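Good morning N.,

You mentioned wanting to compare the apo and holo forms, so I went ahead and generated the holo version with adenosine-5-diphosphoribose. This is what I fed in:
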Amino acid sequence: MKKKVVVLTGAGMSAESGLKTFRDANGLWEGHDVMQVASPQGFAANPELVLEFYNQRRRQLLEVEPNEGHKALAKLEQHFEVGIITQNVDNLHEQAGSSNVLHLHGELFKVRSIADENLVFDWKEDLVLGDLDENGNQLRPHIVWFGEMVPMLEPAIEITAQADILIIIGTSMQVYPAASLVNYVQNGIPIYFVDPRPSVGESDFGNLTIIAEKAAKGVPELVTALCDTET
Ligand code: APR
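and this is what came out, ligand included:
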């Protein structure tokens, strides 16, 4: 039976594809205070600004491509059962060919009704005020904003608890509950952390190996090493 590898990814995973991380620019996200563009209060205060912000992110996503790190994770499936839990709202893991991707913080290419969180639609164009669901309610980005529930947390915990190996890539581990997932792994399993500026040290967790590299270099190297142990 194949071993299970669970991969937790953050913004650094997609940095070399051309998508900016959040906390590398003084807490500004593409020039905005994150609370202005990524909170229910921000949306209530200025919905046009928030919709336009995500329109820009959506247009940008149409132009970027998976990097060597995303591609290596897709190849990992040849030797392991792989579950990816991503904090990213891009679809670069899917574009690279990963088949099992859980989006903890939502997806840029989806929108939903403000009145019914289960009314979710695929959406690759701009979204503006006046774009409504079938009941006449405004549509909003399908993104988990600060202060909102994280509906995919329970399935993410279940997947994490089954890991034989955990890989963490490109996340500052500052946003909860995502950062708390690491607490659900079984005792003693190997954990690898790929990040050029890692926020934790090897003594912080049992059996942690830090690879202080960017994702497009560090991830393919790690994947090759892991696959070699399985052949
Ligand atoms: N390769 C790997 N890691 C990188 C790279 C790279 N090329 N470039 C930067 N990093 C690392 C940084 O060192 C940092 O540790 O990526 C991490 C990015 O951290 P954040 O910007 O805080 O992103 P993330 O942890 O994904 O943020 C979590 O915060 O705003 C919210 O909901 C949003 O999902 C997001 C969450």
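The chain has two domains: 1-19+66-105+150-231, 20-63+110-143.

Happy to go through it together on a call whenever suits you.

Best,
F.
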